[in-house]
Amino acid sequence: MSSAIFGYLLALLLISHITPSTCTNKVIFISFDGFRHDYLEMAAKAGRNISAFDQIRQQGFQAEVQNVMLTLTFPSHYAMATGRNVENHGLVGNKFYDEVLNLTYKYTEPKRNLEGEWFEYGGAEPLWQTNERHGHRTCVFQWVGSEARVHGKMAFATSGVYKDGYSLKWRVDRVLDFLSQPEFNFCMLYYNEPDKSGHRYGPNSKEVLDAIELVNDGMAYLLQRIEQIPSLKGKVNFVVSADHGMTEVDPINRVIDAYSKIKTFSYKGDTSPASIGLWPQKNTTLKELYDAIYGLPNLSVYYKNEIPDRYNFKNNRRIAPVFGIADNGYLVKTSTNVYKDLYGMHGYDNAEPDMHPFLVAFGPDIKKMDGIQKFYQIDLYPYICAMLGLDKPNKIDGRISRTLPFLVNRPSDEFISQFQLYEMGILVPHDYLEVAAGKGRNISAFDQIRKQGFQAEVQNVMLTLTFPSHYAMATGRNVENHGLVGNTFYDEKLKKTYQYTDTRRNIESEWFEYGGSEPLWQTNERHGHRSCVFQWVGSEARVHGKMAFATSGVYNGEYSLRWRIDRVIDFLSRPEFNFCMLYYNEPDSSGHRYGPNSDEVLNAIELVNDGIAYLLQRIEQTPSLRGMVNVVISSDHGMTQVDPVNKVIDVYSKIKDLSYIADTSPGSIGLWPNGSSTIEQLHDAIMNTLHLSVYYKDEIPERYHFKNNRRIAPVFGIADNGYMIKYSSKDYSDLYGMHGYDNAEPDMHPFLVAFGPDIKKMDGIQKFYQIDLYPYICAMLGLDKPNRIDGRISRTLPFLVNRPSDEFISQFQLYEMGILVP
């Protein structure tokens, strides 16, 4: 095997390859609220003017849309934006209760509508963010969710809080102001007709026909304006749809009185005129609420787990434990108020034809098709991604395969294959290099490495902190087995606290020897070679009485990346050295200080790229190294946006009067009873804290591999992604990026790029386990007697040019499982 240089950068997010889009056309996506699938035919039959819609459908196609459940404005619009069914995007109604947040979302409260927590459920990502993550700019005009900071971000241009007074023509002018600028490739626009007229007068009314003509007039104006703008003429794809349909209702004779059945009970209600969700409160039971409304005529009632699977409206904590839906055209009375001036309604079963919205589309990328097609609402996301050339979507329920017949030019097989891996959640999008490339930043060295080798998303260990993660990379062990369980933690046996800021204590060997852990530099030297280690966690300590042959001593952040590279090359160019490890603290430092979405992080990425370019240059200039070095570059964790003022969990106020020792980071807290306080008191003090998951030690999820170690506290709490724990009297300041959250969170996943004579060239984005770095490096260095590890050499074999011999692999596996001991 060739000699290897093992270079690590403390990068924040997976750096994934972006192929600059060749798409030059733009997209306008418009929703006309409540535009039923048959309204155009109804208007034409009545002799109304629908000439603009006729132009669009004659040059493109028309479809009846299978929409999501519930067929309400907010759930449907967010499904259109995210490509997800309602149970997966989390906006489960126009009004609904969240038991964890202990808050009720109300569409009539624009202030609450701005809170990001309502729109971030399950990592949902709206189209405007997907587009901007690929390096473009988006304009969004009054779409559901566009006023909120979703995952800390908004579209580049938005219209602010919803306001009903803007005319459609005025909205069109604003959209075109942005779309005519070269950096904008995508706009979304919402308008509230014919829904408003349909509610007030009924779907079959003259007023709805008037509203259709009004909307047609706005579309004609849009088409005219685009023809008048040279940069847009012939280059815009139009996708015009709606959230739901509308059916006729009778506010007097077709009302289901649920209120009289439940008014004596204590409950919270998720209500719309077509459905009801009930949450028991105080002494009321689930069964009492269910029995109270079960059997009401024209109302189908379910326990949550009985809701039909076809609804895709069940598996979400925000869906009430008792759910009832009215028959089409009936209204549910849920209070003392009576319905009046309400003659059209939606929110019914999405199998009802009256609930289905329309879709018309045309443009340079949209295929002309006769007849009325069928289109799935959740497929709007992948359809628009395909037209914009966005090849790394979020995980979605929509499927790009269903949209291909509606495109003039089928995307490449490579595009489709990669897209499908992302849409199914097999690959997860990360945005550092994508954003850097989209903004013209220099990432040429990273491009060179991944094009000649491969790139991967790394499944890292828990906790997603610097010291536990780096020692997992070095030892091939999960955190509970290597023993460095945090950046700061208490050891009850040693009666000491490890603090990453205490460089004197950091070099005490007892912290690094737990369970017989052995870092890579020792494994390499045990096989008769020499290692160089530059500022890696644990490299300053005598682990089992030994250090690497060459180290840099106690950590010093002042050394430049180029200076570090020169020192590494000095050693690696000597024949006795076959392995080097290098650590650098960017872009982590910039991410913490300014946030992961900042220009400063982009500057740090360019700085790191410059260092890697220098490394590649130095290798080429050194005859003994040219063509002989395997380069592996990765990271310990990712980074997410935090808010040091508005997204802070005050744990300190709950525990300050108790006696304890704390293992602390902004993302997690471990509590040890001290003095008179008990484990139960500490647990109960922080249990039921909003945005904090609290466990007794033996309840910590097995998937964390963060439980079976004496150094893990008996009470452990982990914050929701993006929230920070206040564990002392001090407030946070100048901290806008953080890690240390659940390792299932995509924002926490690091990157990996690698190339060299022993490293296989692979297309696409692979998956790699952080604990497999140890056996991967061992395989390249020919080290056949590893320490006992949690990583598996079998998972690394596809990444090697030449598979080691069966004898090598068999022996290695006996050691990695601890059957043989070195």
Q: How are the secondary structure elements laid out?
A:
Blueprint: E1 4-8, E2 26-32, H1 39-45, H2 51-59, E3 61-66, H3 73-82, H4 86-89, E4 95-98, E5 103-106, H5 110-113, H6 127-133, E6 137-141, E7 157-158, H7 168-179, E8 184-191, H8 195-201, H9 206-227, E9 236-241, E10 247-248, E11 255-257, H10 259-262, E12 267-272, E13 275-280, H11 286-293, E14 299-303, E15 322-326, E16 331-333, E17 344-345, E18 358-362, E19 372-376, H12 380-388, H13 413-423, H14 432-438, H15 444-452, E20 454-459, H16 466-475, H17 479-482, E21 488-491, E22 496-499, H18 503-506, H19 520-526, E23 530-534, E24 550-551, H20 561-572, E25 577-582, H21 588-594, H22 599-621, E26 630-634, E27 640-641, E28 648-650, H23 652-655, E29 660-665, E30 668-673, H24 679-686, E31 692-696, E32 715-719, E33 724-726, E34 737-738, E35 751-755, E36 765-769, H25 773-781, H26 806-816
Parallel strand pairs: 1-25, 1-26, 2-8, 2-9, 3-19, 6-7, 6-8, 11-16, 20-36, 23-24, 23-25, 28-33
Antiparallel strand pairs: 3-18, 4-5, 9-18, 10-17, 12-13, 13-15, 14-15, 20-35, 21-22, 26-35, 27-34, 29-30, 30-32, 31-32
- Find the CATH superfamily of the largest domain: Alkaline Phosphatase, subunit A
Tally of DSSP helical segments: 26
**What is the average of the pLDDT values?**
91
User: What is the β-strand count?
Assistant: 36
Going by CATH, the architecture of the largest domain would be 3-Layer(aba) Sandwich
* Strand line-up across the major sheet: 24-23-25-1-26-35-20-36
Q: What's the gyration radius in Å?
A: 30 Å
| Main sheet record | 8 strands, mixed
Strand-residue fraction?
A: 15-25%
Distance between the termini: 21 Å
CATH topology of the largest domain: Alkaline Phosphatase, subunit A
Q: Which structural class do you get from the secondary structure elements?
A: alpha/beta
Give the low-pLDDT segments. Answer: 1-22
| Shape designation | globular
Helix content: 25-40%
- In the CATH hierarchy, what is the class of the largest domain? Alpha Beta
Number of domains: 5
GO molecular function, one term: hydrolase activity
Organism: Mesocestoides corti (Flatworm)
Keywords: Signal
Protein name: Extracellular Endonuclease subunit A domain-containing protein
